[in-house]
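Colleagues,

For the teaching module next term, I've prepared a clean inverse folding example: a structure given as tokens, and then the sequence designed for it. I'd like students to try predicting residues themselves before seeing the answer, so please don't circulate the second half yet.
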């Protein structure tokens, strides 16, 4: 796989600093039951990295000592970590709002038959990957048969109340483009998703998020192989919007890898660009105090244009 960081080192992206920490985003491991071509994590079935119980307990200790009330769990497929349910249960006891970034097909994997009910019982917000409402496009990007299983997953979540008004169970969908283009208008795309999924499958959901493909890891390597990397980077730079800088997710989020090390965002984690905190070359969750974060500089490289291009992009959708 082609290395993308050398192509991103030289940048004129504006310097930005951290605000108040609101979200702890935790990567529980890189193992996944899918292997999508757009994946910026390079996750897949053969990956073995998994966060240990010891590191998870360190996360919980930080949450107890801080006022952070939002825990965003990602991977890989975060549910494949053997400590996933332990973390969810213990975090709920601390009155933490949990987000599970779910690929939907995981709901039908061996030993995961009760996963959907577990998520509902713990009122976990589900952010479900569905890069298109058309079968051909999803299967092309994520693998043959993925669309049909994803639809069944959404139906299962709907049956439990997810996505339905006044249920208290939030079901958000995540869209990303098929290739080196910017996402369309989030508002108009959400309307199209609602129409197609309700009409064709009787499926409802809470919100749609759009996410720009980042020129790193598997997607970035594909762009290099096809000679499209520079053109895509130029598109991101040309589409830069200054007003998005105030709302980029790295201002209020800290990303933690499966070993417990800290990064300004999930994308920096994948590029091995640690957060810069109190002269620590590689800060760890066991060393973290909230007061260390506010006002600290955020590590930026050329890929940061992906978050500020067009309508903006974050794990919570358009900015």
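(Answer key — instructors only)
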């Amino acid at each position: 796989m082609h290395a993308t960081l050398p192509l991103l080192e030289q940048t004129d992206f504006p310097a930005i600093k951290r605000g108040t920490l609101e979200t702890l985003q935790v990567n529980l491991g890189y193992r996944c039951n899918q292997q999508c071509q757009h994946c910026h994590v390079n996750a897949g079935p053969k990956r073995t990295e998994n966060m240990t119980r010891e590191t998870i307990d360190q996360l919980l200790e930080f949450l107890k000592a801080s006022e952070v009330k939002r825990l965003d769990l990602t991977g890989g497929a975060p549910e494949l970590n053997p400590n996933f349910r332990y973390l969810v249960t213990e975090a709920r006891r601390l009155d933490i709002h949990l987000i599970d970034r779910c690929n939907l097909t995981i709901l039908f994997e061996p030993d995961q038959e009760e996963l959907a009910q577990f998520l509902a019982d713990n009122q976990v917000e589900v952010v479900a990957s569905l890069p298109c409402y058309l079968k051909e496009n999803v299967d092309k990007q994520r693998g043959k048969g993925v669309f049909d299983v994803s639809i069944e997953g959404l139906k299962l979540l709907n049956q439990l109340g997810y996505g339905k008004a006044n249920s208290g169970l939030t079901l958000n969908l995540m869209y990303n483009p098929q290739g080196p283009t910017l996402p369309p208008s989030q508002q108009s795309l959400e309307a199209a998703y609602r129409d197609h999924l309700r009409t064709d499958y009787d499926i409802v959901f809470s919100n749609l998020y759009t996410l720009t493909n980042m020129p790193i890891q598997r997607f970035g390597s594909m762009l290099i192989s096809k000679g499209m990397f520079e053109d895509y980077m130029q598109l991101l730079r040309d589409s830069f919007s200054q007003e998005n800088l105030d709302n980029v997710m790295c201002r209020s989020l800290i990303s933690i890898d499966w070993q417990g090390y800290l990064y300004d965002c999930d994308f920096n984690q994948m590029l091995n660009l640690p957060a810069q905190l109190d002269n620590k070359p590689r800060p760890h969750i066991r060393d973290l105090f909230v007061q260390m974060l506010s006002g600290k500089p955020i590590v930026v490289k050329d890929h940061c244009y992906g978050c500020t291009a067009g309508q903006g992009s974050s794990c919570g959708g358009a900015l």
